[in-house]
Amino acid sequence: MQHPIDSLELLEQQAKKIAGILKPGDVVYLLGDLGAGKTTFTQMLLKACGVREHIKSPTYTLYETYQIGDMSFVHMDLYRLSDPEELFFLGIEDLLDDRRIVVIEWPEKGRGVLPQADWVLEFNLNKLNRTLTITSE
């Protein structure tokens, strides 16, 4: 389903909706060009899930983890990944389990190593508007 996200308020509304349906073990793929809103969305999503600490972009670290009670979140940004096999050196097996929600920007960079997504969110930009298309696998 496609949703307009032409403002931060609309983006935040979608983040809150997704936060309300995610469950431990879910893997979320975020697709879209640079500057489409993936990291901003993830920050809003994690805040909506209860993360109170500063949520930073994992562009250089490749992933950040956040803990809320017994719930754990992993935010991955694979933009700088040069080979999917590098994910094994990061300990990808330990990051993906049924206790965590994993949100992955640039998942195409981990093709062949990453598990199938439960949710795919595609951020689209054009000259007239921004939209978010949400699909469940």
The CATH topology, please? Rossmann fold
Strand content: 25-35%
The portion of residues assigned to helices is 10-25%
Specify the CATH architecture: 3-Layer(aba) Sandwich
Order of helices and strands: EHEHEEHHEEE
CATH superfamily: P-loop containing nucleotide triphosphate hydrolases
Whole-number radius of gyration? 14 Å
Q: Report the uncertain regions.
A: none
Within the largest sheet, what's the order of strands? 1-7-6-2-5-4-3
Largest sheet: 7 strands, mixed
Level-1 CATH class name: Alpha Beta
Mean pLDDT: 91
Q: How many beta-strand elements?
A: 7
Q: How would you portray this structure in words?
A:
This protein is an alpha/beta fold and 137 residues long. It is 24% helix and 30% strand. The chain has a single domain (2-136), classed as 3-Layer(aba) Sandwich (Rossmann fold).
What topology does this entry show?
Layout (H helix, E strand, L loop, with lengths): L1 E3 L3 H14 L5 E5 L6 H11 L14 E6 L2 E7 L8 H4 L2 H4 L4 E6 L13 E7 L4 E7 L1
Parallel strand pairs: 2-5, 2-6, 4-5
Antiparallel strand pairs: 1-7, 3-4, 6-7
Helix pairs in contact: 1-2
